[in-house]
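Input sequence (329 aa), recorded before submission:
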Amino acid sequence: MRHLLCAVLLTAFPAALAAQDTVATPPPTGKLVDIGGRRLHIRCVGSGAGAPTVITESGSSSFSIEWALVQDKVAPFARICSYDRAGFAWSERGPEENTVEETMDDLHHLLRAVALPPPYVLVGHSIGGMYVQAYQRRYPDEVAGLVLVDATPEEDAEYLYNGKSTVGITLNYDQLASVYAPYIKNPPPPLALPTAVDTPYNKLSPDLQRAEVWAERLWRSRVDMPHSWITAESWRQEFVALRKRRLATPHALGDLPLIVLRRGRRTTDVLNQREADLVALSSVGKLVVGTESDHEIQLYQPDLVTQAIRDVIGEIHANHRHARDHLQH
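Predicted structure, token format:
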């Protein structure tokens, strides 16, 4: 299966088409939690007494299922929770726009509904890297550390504008609307529905592989072009805000523990530089390269993601000890 970035929204198709080929709904891997009239799916494992809770945020067309390998490895030393955004996998649909603001509100309500108090270590994959930065920007006192897993830098969200690939943050509202206009008027043909997973999803258990196929089909059936345009506009606005913050202040995150994981396969000098820019968000930021990984590092090298989470938690504990010792002296 392919998990694209912003461009994936341009492959939307009407929901009715998916009804032609469906698979049985698998049981949730976690539980459905009411956040005020609708339910979101979340799976938490581990106890992690004394450690911050780890919260994962998936990519643009990804699901909590894909964090299972990492969750199993993190559980012995921390509580780790993976959830699905509204309309993804088992989570019920919310506002059809699914803007960044609404998604962050959902997560904030969900964490309180399941009685998971801060601080958190947020782990974001792909576009999830933007979401966890957005959450930290809104609730800085709740976030103790970040792990960005092959995260999408703001310059990587590109669209086809006037026949050229154009960085989304350089477009204004009307220009981005014009990108979507022809697709809204004449939606592209439906994508082929997956019948099985490929690498690296075949590292999951057979039950989770079947759940991944089901979730992918369901997601494709729910993508709606007019509302996808609204989501893309909210992404653009958030990327612009994050870029302004990054350029305005060296080490915009201060000394927040931060590890950036970058894939080692199918990379470019431009992508490497953009990931380096993410590392520079924190004065203590670190870069780790997944030499055996493509985009889905959490599946190719779950041990690497686990170690990054462990290291961030270790740094948080060290900072607390240092602060405590300073007060005592």
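Checked by second reader. Residues 6-328 form a domain with the Rossmann fold fold (CATH 3.40.50.1820).
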